[in-house]
Amino acid sequence: MDLLERNDTGGIAHLHMNAPERLNALSDEMLAALQAQIDALAEDRDTRVVILSGAGKAFCAGHDLKQMQAGRQAEDGGKAYFADLFARCARVMMGLQALPQPVIAQVHGIATAAGCQLVATCDMAVAAQGTRFGVNGVNIGLFCSTPMVALSRNIPRKRAFEMLTTGSFVEADEAERLGLVNRVVAPDALGSETRALAETVAAKLSAAVKIGKRAFYDQAQMPLDQAYAFTGEVMVENMLWRDTEEGISAFLEKRPPDWS
Ligand SMILES: C/C=C/C(=O)SCCNC(=O)CCNC(=O)[C@H](O)C(C)(C)COP(=O)(O)OP(=O)(O)OC[C@H]1O[C@@H](n2cnc3c(N)ncnc32)[C@H](O)[C@@H]1OP(=O)(O)O
């Protein structure tokens, strides 16, 4: 059984973390497996949408605490290992955001610490009722500074700060109100609802979704005037495609588009 299973159907790549005995903790091996899939997906022209889920009773419980304790046995107390670990984790998170395809987290059970960071990093998320979200590193004396980057950019500042400093969990309904997840569904409908969202996006003109995803994050870094100038250029490029001409013609002629 692979640590990270991949199943491709209908232009949707489903990545399934499969280390339930450690609640899919982000071990060195799990980070490497995620990075390998990110590298492959970045070059994959057939995949339109990615789903990320976890096996067992939790989506992901953050960094692997057993490996972290082992890492500190090195002569330098683990300094080099930890620096490398957080750099590798950051590369995975930034890689997910930089993927051309939208990534949807399919979340159940618990998503905590770097696991909650994964949810915040994904472009969209669907959660099962009963899922709990936290950044509870502070409970073990480890402030979740790197998860803070994604969390503070995705939910209101004061609520992010409270989660980081109290280590307390947020229930699924509140996660939806905060915008950490798009929707909360019955546990037995989690797979089908996530798949339906993925299929809706996969049915759009993939090239448009892909330049749109890149522009979504790039423009967020810019002052207002630059953001309008930049997104205007993106739209000009998009308008010049034959498939966009076809999409507009199809609308005007009241027929489905026939994209290349
Ligand atoms: C900058 C970012 C930093 C980080 O990400 S640091 C990691 C921070 N993460 C945590 O502090 C979470 C630690 N885990 C927990 O607090 C609890 O778990 C949960 C609340 C998530 C779930 O509790 P429950 O449902 O009671 O499960 P269970 O019996 O504690 O866990 C099942 C098995 O999974 C192992 N496990 C859980 N989390 C981790 C982890 N993060 N790294 C490695 N192993 C983990 C346990 O030890 C245990 O294993 P066994 O059955 O052998 O006793």
Automatic annotation (TrEMBL):
<keyword id="KW-0276">Fatty acid metabolism</keyword>
<keyword id="KW-0443">Lipid metabolism</keyword>
<keyword id="KW-0456">Lyase</keyword>
<dbReference type="Pfam" id="PF00378">
    <property type="entry name" value="ECH_1"/>
</dbReference>
<dbReference type="GO" id="GO:0004300">
    <property type="term" value="F:enoyl-CoA hydratase activity"/>
</dbReference>
<dbReference type="InterPro" id="IPR001753">
    <property type="entry name" value="Enoyl-CoA_hydra/iso"/>
</dbReference>
<protein>
    <submittedName>
        <fullName>Enoyl-CoA hydratase</fullName>
        <ecNumber>4.2.1.17</ecNumber>
    </submittedName>
</protein>
<dbReference type="InterPro" id="IPR052377">
    <property type="entry name" value="Mitochondrial_ECH-domain"/>
</dbReference>
